[in-house]
Design a protein that fits this description.
- The protein is mainly alpha-helical.
- It has one domain.
- It is built from seven helices and two strands.
- Helix 6 packs across helix 7.
Length: 184
Amino acid sequence: MKVRLPHAPYIASKIAIDLLNCGFVTLQKGLEPVSENAKVLIIEEINKEVALEQRVSEVLDENNDEMEFMQIDRRNMFWLIKKKLAKDYKVILSFEERYSDLSHRILSKLQKESLVKYQVSENRVKNIIYNAIEDYLKTYEKAQDVVLERIDNYKRKLTPGTEEYDLVFERLYEEELRKRGMIK
């Protein structure tokens, strides 16, 4: 699953909580600095892919007439161009490899900032970070479904896209993530 910008703080929080609870990592300065450092790297990763996709869209727009003439499927062409330009933008297209690389970079940053201490293999700690990312992504859709159902059952109907709807959704979503141990 593709990570979107609004997910970054939640994933970062999940990483910090999972590191705290794993039993073999000590957070030298608490949850917040770990979460903040992870969030910065997650946002960087998201922004790289956004930049790549914007460039791909520009290329497609520049060649739109030719694509229509040749009856080329825009979606397939988007993927082909994205695949070709990914290396230039330092984007790993395989989600598994991307999250593994991101986990490694997060751990490296946490070590560099002296935010974590552990006596086990680096790979074991990296796996905690990787699993936190994967767990969040698996849980996200379930939590979102629960929140949408709760909003549908409100006595007064909220209109999607309104400020009130967004505020209620965000509050209920955070509440649901707390219930699931994803954030504190």
